[in-house]
Amino acid sequence: MSAILVTGSAGFIGSALVRLLREKGFMVIEFDVAQGDITSEQALLPYADKGIHHVFHLAGKTFVPESWRHPFGFYQVNMMGTVNVLEFCRKTGAGLTYVSSYLYGQPDYLPVDEDHPVKSYNPYSQSKVVADATCQFYARQYGMPVTIFRPFNAYGPGQSPQFIIPEIISKVFDPAQVVLEVMDLLPRRDYIYLDDLLEAFVLSMGKPYGIYNLGSGYSKSVAEIVALVFQYSGITKEVRATGNNRPNEIFDLYADISKIKRDYNWDIKTSFEAGMKNCVEHYMRR
Question: How far is Cα 49 from Cα 39, in angstroms, rounded to an integer?
Fold first, then answer.
C-alpha cells in the first residue's frame, strides 16, 4: 500500500493535515523532531522502502524574531532540510508539495500574483526564498512533480498565540488585560482558513510542477480582527495601538488566487467572518 509522508507533522498545519489525510483513508507516516533531524542525510533513509508516493514538506523554523537572533539555524533547517527532502523524492520517485511563505515583501502591485518578484527582508524569509528556488530547480532539472504553495496568512482554531489572531483572542478573554494593546490597527493581510488551505494540499497530490498562491484574495486589517473578536465573544475593551511598528512593516498585502482557481478548480469556502467565529468559539470551549 502506498503511503504519504508529512514532515513537520506536529505543527499547527501539519497535525491538521495528518488528521485529514487519515480521515480520507490514506496511510500517513509522520516526521517531526521526535523522529530525527530533517537536515541529516540519514534522517529519511528508514522511509525509502515504505512505498511513499507523496511528501508534504512542512518542517521548518518559522518565528521571524528568532531568525534575527539565530539565523544559522533557520538557513540550516529551512534550506538544507528542504534539499534533503528533495533528494528523498528524487531517489524514490515521490511527488512533493512544498509549503513556502513570506516571499513577496513590500508589494510592487496588488493583488500579488505568482510572477511578482520575491524579496527577502529577514533571515527567515531569505531561507524560504532560497528553498523555494531550489524546489523550482529540482522540478526543472530532474522533471520532478513538485507543487510549491505560497500561503499568505493561515489561521484557525488551535494556532499558537504568537500569531496575531490567537494573540488578540487570548488578550480579549484575559481579565487581567483591561486594555487591549496592539502594535498597530492599520496593517492589512490576506488570511486563509486552515480547512481551505488543507483542501488545496490534498488536491496537489498527483499534479505536475506548479507554483500557486494560497489566500482569500482580499485583505483584512487588525482593527477588523479586533471588531470581530469583540462581536463573537461579547466582550469589549478599550483598544490602544502602541505605535511600536515592526521594521519594514507592510500595510497591505493580498493574493491573486486566479491561477489555483483555474488549475485546481479550488476556491475558499470559509469566509473570514465564519473563520473568526470558529476561532473565538474554539477558545471559549477551552
Answer: 20
DSSP reduced 3-state for 189: strand
| Domain extent at residue 93 | 3-155+192-217+250-269
CA atoms of 85 and 38, how far apart (whole Å): 8
Is position 151 within any domain? yes
Per-residue pLDDT tens digits of the chain, which is 286 residues long: 689 999 999 999 999 999 999 999 999 999 999 999 999 999 999 999 999 999 999 999 988 889 999 999 999 999 999 999 999 999 999 999 999 988 998 999 999 999 999 998 899 999 999 999 999 999 999 999 999 999 999 999 999 998 999 999 999 999 999 999 999 999 999 999 999 999 999 999 999 999 999 999 999 999 999 999 999 999 999 999 998 776 667 899 999 999 999 999 999 999 999 999 999 999 999 8
pTM of this structure: 0.95
Kind of pairing, strands 52-57 and 188-189? Answer: unpaired
| Overall number of domains in the chain | 1
